């Protein structure tokens, strides 16, 4: 099948989105326009093009909602722990290891790689985000640095080799007609070269952003999650005018000379639940009655002091309990997953099942923590507010990705039919796969050029947001092109696997499981993908050269 006008329009949309991303601009509008125009050209109906804008985002939401839900559950758990100050106490043991930003960076990368290698990153990242990320932030590691370390080590280095589960090598090997172990061995080496290179470059990028270990780092990071709808960034700041100041027109010189006080307003997770906030303004908590005095007011103040002491002692006791219970609960979950992997005592959990266990466990811990702090009756309200905080955060931070993912889903034959409103059984074209297949004829027989050609094709396949969906194609190309260039098809298949998984598996594009990493570290997902681009591409270039010259 030859390329149609729809293929060229879709390709133009892909290039437009990539260009706008490189230019550091928001890509939502280009994605919406590209979706409408591509659907219009595919069907010949402008009405269908308009409908595709909504349908594409809807399909993307249905496919990615499990990621949103995990982010919401983990955020709700952090909010419940924060209400009793168990979050700060929970990270205390890690302070002995994470003494500074660099040690925190190394620990995050090593632990993420180890857990993700056995259980895949999707269930591993929320676990790390709940326990290790707060400790790393307190140690002085910037939130973006934590996100990049987790993404590179887990979503990239561990998943691209998939050396333990060997799902990815199996897909590549089957399509290439070679042994799975041969692909797995090469992929392991290439993933380590790519990952270590990327981690070193990320470290160089972070060298000026490390901070001194302090509780203020953790408090500032947690205060960035809001429980109320946040206005646009430029409206976040309000001008504070002194009440004593007369509001009269000022000359331009006066406006230049007089400073303007700017106040940042932040509402942390859990600020609306779990008892009275620790700080505030304008309320009676901030204006305690004067000490001593006579009459009923003085007596009430004296009676309130012992009650406050009892409440503080109770919160401190709960803080100690849950700072132990939460890590033990997640540790028990890891033990259960290991038993399922190496024995027949319990069912094996992989992929979505493991992620569901993480989300369900987080939800149970939210309910138990809220009931312990607020009592059974008030917990009915506070638990719902914690979950609402988590969902609001998830959609505020990640919702912008849906229109972008919808456009790329339009190029996937599995989703295009639903987006365009095709009836069941009516086959939709796979625009992205067709474009990739058509480009294989332009790859020359030189081993180095061929390796880079297969790498680029793998990266193009990964644009769909699934690191594994392009592996049958890259494996087939490896099996067909390898013998003609005198290269081992297993090596070519591993190179294509690197491109596809590092891109779509959750490092280079925002409409992937990179959403989970951004969610648990509270950083903008598109900015995270942009920051990861240079280190990861440099690592892929080096690993591809290694594959071409030494395998």
TrEMBL record:
Keywords: Membrane, Transmembrane, Transmembrane helix
TM annotation in the entry: 6-24, 31-54, 60-81, 102-121, 186-206, 321-339, 351-371, 391-410, 499-520, 532-550
Region (Disordered): 271-308
Coiled-coil intervals: none
This protein's record includes keyword Transmembrane: yes
Protein name: H+/gluconate symporter-like permease
Organism: Pseudonocardia alaniniphila
């Amino acid at each position: 099948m030859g390329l149609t006008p729809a293929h060229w329009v879709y390709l133009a949309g892909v290039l437009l989105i990539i260009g706008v991303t490189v230019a550091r601009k928001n890509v939502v509008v280009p994605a919406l326009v590209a979706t409408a125009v591509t659907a219009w050209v595919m069907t010949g109906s402008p009405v269908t093009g308009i409908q595709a804008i909504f349908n594409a985002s809807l399909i993307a939401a249905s496919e990615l909602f499990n990621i949103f839900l995990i982010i919401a559950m983990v955020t709700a758990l952090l909010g419940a722990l924060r209400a009793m100050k168990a979050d700060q106490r929970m990270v205390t043991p890690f302070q002995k290891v994470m003494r500074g930003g660099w040690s925190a960076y190394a620990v995050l990368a090593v632990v993420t790689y180890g857990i993700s290698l056995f259980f895949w990153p999707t269930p591993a990242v929320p676990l790390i985000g709940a326990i290790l990320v707060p400790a790393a932030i307190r140690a002085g590691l910037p939130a973006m640095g934590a996100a990049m370390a987790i993404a590179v080590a887990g979503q990239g280095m561990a998943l691209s080799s998939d050396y333990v589960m060997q799902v990815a090598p199996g897909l590549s090997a089957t399509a290439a007609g070679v042994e799975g172990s041969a692909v797995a061995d090469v992929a392991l080496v290439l993933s380590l070269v790519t990952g270590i290179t990327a981690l070193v470059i990320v470290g160089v990028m972070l060298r000026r952003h490390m901070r001194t270990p302090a509780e203020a780092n953790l408090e500032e990071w947690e205060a960035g999650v809001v429980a109320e709808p946040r206005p646009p960034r430029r409206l976040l700041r309000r001008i504070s005018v002194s009440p004593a100041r007369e509001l009269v027109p000022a000359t331009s010189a006066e406006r230049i000379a007089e400073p303007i006080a700017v106040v940042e307003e932040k509402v942390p997770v859990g600020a609306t639940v779990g008892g009275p906030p620790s700080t505030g303004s304008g309320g009676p908590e901030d204006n305690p009655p004067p000490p001593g005095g006579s009459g009923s007011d003085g007596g009430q103040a004296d009676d309130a002091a012992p009650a406050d002491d009892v409440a503080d002692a109770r919160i401190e006791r709960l803080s100690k309990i849950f700072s132990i219970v939460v890590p033990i609960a997640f540790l028990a979950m890891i033990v259960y997953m290991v038993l399922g992997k190496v024995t027949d005592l319990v069912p094996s959990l992989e992929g979505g099942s493991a992620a569901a266990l993480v989300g369900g466990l987080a939800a149970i811990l939210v309910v138990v923590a809220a009931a312990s702090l607020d009592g059974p009756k008030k917990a009915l309200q506070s638990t719902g507010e914690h979950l609402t905080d988590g969902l609001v955060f998830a959609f505020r931070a990640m919702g912008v990705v849906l229109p972008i993912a919808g456009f790329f889903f339009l190029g996937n034959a599995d989703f295009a039919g639903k987006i365009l409103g095709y009836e069941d059984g009516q086959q939709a074209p796979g625009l992205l796969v067709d474009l990739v297949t058509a480009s294989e004829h332009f790859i020359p027989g030189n081993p180095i050029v061929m390796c880079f050609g297969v790498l680029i094709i793998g990266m193009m396949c990964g644009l769909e947001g699934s690191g594994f969906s392009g592996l049958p194609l890259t494996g087939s190309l490896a099996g067909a092109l390898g013998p003609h260039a005198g290269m081992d098809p297993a090596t070519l298949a591993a190179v294509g696997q690197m491109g596809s998984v590092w891109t779509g598996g959750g490092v280079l594009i925002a409409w992937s499981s990179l959403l989970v990493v951004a969610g648990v570290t509270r950083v903008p997902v598109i900015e995270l993908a942009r920051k990861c681009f240079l280190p990861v591409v440099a690592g892929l270039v080096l690993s591809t050269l290694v594959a071409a010259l030494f395998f």
